[in-house]
Amino acid sequence: MGYREVYDAWKSDREGFWMEAAQAIDWVKAPSKALFEKGGNLFEWFADGTCNTCWNAVDRHVEGGRADQAAIIYDSPITGRKETITYAELKDRVASLAGALKAKGINKGDRVVIYMPMVPQAVEAMLACGRIGAIHSVVFGGFAANELAVRIDDAKPKAIIAASCGLEPGRVVKYKPLLDGAIDIAKHKPDFTLILQREEEVAELTEGRDFDWVEAVAAAEPADCVPVEGNHPSYILYTSGTTGQPKGVIRHTAGQLVALNWTMKNVYNVDPGEVFWAASDVGWVVGHSYIAYAPLIHGNTTIVFEGKPVGTPDAGTFWRVISEHKVRSFFTAPTAFRAVKREDPKGEFVKKYDLSGLRVVYLAGERADPDTIVWAQEQLNVPVIDHWWQTETGWAIAANPVGIELLPVKLGSPSVPMPGYDVQVLDEGGNPVAPGELGAIAVKLPLPPGTLPTLWNAPERFQKSYLSTFPGYYETGDAGMIDEDGYLYIMARTDDVINVAGHRLSTGGMEEVLASHPDVAECAVIGVTDQLKGQLPVGFLCLNAGCDRPHDEVVAEVVKLVREKIGPVAAFKLAVVVDRLPKTRSGKILRGTMVSIADGTEWKMPATIDDPAILDEIKDALKTIGYAD
Ligand code: COA
Ligand code: AMP
């Protein structure tokens, strides 16, 4: 069957399609049906089945003949370390860690926050939670103590698992002071922490609260897999919305197992036993789905890569890893390729490695610009596939389903909707627009298995953010179009979310931090176009009347403040002081117009603008930092 037949088969029998996909999963009790309607436009999948994530990702492969196959290859150019962990070893390690958690009182449904760098123990911690039915919430290492605290207060974890440090080129990021700071700030206090001490930094442990990972695991009885209901949350992953309060995306156990397993062959075209590599971080959804879960559920080998596309040690790192570990399908963010291309435009490093085993490259996380795709196609001589998805969906909404059929690649398009997603482009009134016309991209409910059923602690926010604008649809927050051939084009976000180096960030969250500076009366943050990172945040500050401090001092302070409050990942380094912000007569800041001025793209004077002269001031201010030329 080709793509069209598979998509139509899903459309004509959705239950049958997902029940068949569910057969590839081991159930303790098989579900009686796939879709469960909960009312209020809420849906769940396989809710009356019981199963276990860790069993499906680890134990069943040990029993099924993959005991000696590599499950995880850890490759850390930043430390020079490499390690291969077989499925049998992974089972022992995870069972012991799960036992340690259990011995300290972690049970089914308890939350565990994981704050770890890219080491295999991060994946083991996720699997150990799944083994005993605990719900993990991984926090990206580039977030500061305050962001960690916000997540601790929302998820209310009984335990936090962390490493003593992460490693960024040229610096050791000490996690323990950040963790201690976060626990101090948070109202909710965890019962205990489990700390993985790394050679580069030995953290001080607080007696009675902090426990050493190795000691705890050595003393533990291995724990068995605990069966959980299909709709039991596997994890909560916080992602940026329009405010500083992140959204806790929930992933249910069974839907995740079924959907991710389906994607490994159909989208990523790998068979069990082959090596799959997603060069992301476990702190992001790509890391959850395609470093930790999908490859293991499907019996592949996954790579935990602790390094950067460039500088660890050079722009050939990706190619070295692909050739050394025989990677078949490789997944990264366009920004990573732009970084490599900038250092090695002619692909001198590519020529040094045997990449004959590589079959396909996948890009996601941000718009894949045609230049980058063409460069990668020319260098690597394999199809380069853009695909589009979100933390909320957990897997591709649109892709080129290479395992079913390699469709013609259209530059600038992540190709076509995957089975499970009825994607439509709607006008403001919620009516589908004609092919080629721009609109809001929405998905007709229900969303498929593996997508978010609701938000943690925030069911009303779930309704308001995703379901209220277009009744009967999930609002993706992206705008774009569908062409005559059914290919999607993702053009822009419709909210205040920006995408910096493939990382999703909230300009609203940054504005909250800027506004907390004592000299700032009013502010705005916009995302301007950046050749490397896609977008970069730029702040505009109006100072309090009477504040005569040098502007560069205030700018330096707010830059420091964002780094302290949100973290280095915000990449907030540019801000300017202006007298006023451009607004509509009703007081709405004209951020979109400011972005166009900064990027030097065409724009129209908004009809509702209060005082057009302010735009000249904005332009002059942007010129002082190298924009708006
Ligand atoms: N822990 C602590 N700090 C981190 C971090 C982590 N896990 N990840 C990033 N940071 C820091 C960086 O060190 C940098 O700090 P600096 O301001 O002191 O330089 C800052 O956060 C910004 O990081 P980033 O935007 O990633 O830029 P970079 O200059 O370090 O690297 C790229 C640029 C393009 C090489 C890098 O962004 C990259 O590899 N991106 C791939 C994107 C990706 O994997 N996205 C996941 C979704 S698929
Ligand atoms: P995240 O939740 O961090 O994965 O970010 C999801 C958002 O990133 C999407 O809503 C898009 O705005 C953007 N995005 C992800 N993949 C793509 C893509 N292939 N093309 C365009 N935008 C993308």
UniProtKB/TrEMBL annotation:
GO terms for molecular function: propionate-CoA ligase activity. InterPro entries: ACAS_N (IPR032387), AMP-bd_C (IPR025110), AMP-bd_C_sf (IPR045851), AMP-binding_CS (IPR020845), AMP-dep_synth/lig_dom (IPR000873), ANL_N_sf (IPR042099). Residues 66-444 form the AMP-dependent synthetase/ligase domain. GO terms for cellular component: intracellular organelle lumen. Residues 3-57 form the Acetyl-coenzyme A synthetase N-terminal domain. Residues 510-588 form the AMP-binding enzyme C-terminal domain. Pfam families: ACAS_N (PF16177), AMP-binding (PF00501), AMP-binding_C (PF13193). Keywords: Ligase. Belongs to the ATP-dependent AMP-binding enzyme family. This is Propionate-CoA ligase PrpE. It comes from Marimonas arenosa. The lineage of its organism: Bacteria, Pseudomonadati, Pseudomonadota, Alphaproteobacteria, Rhodobacterales. The gene is prpE.
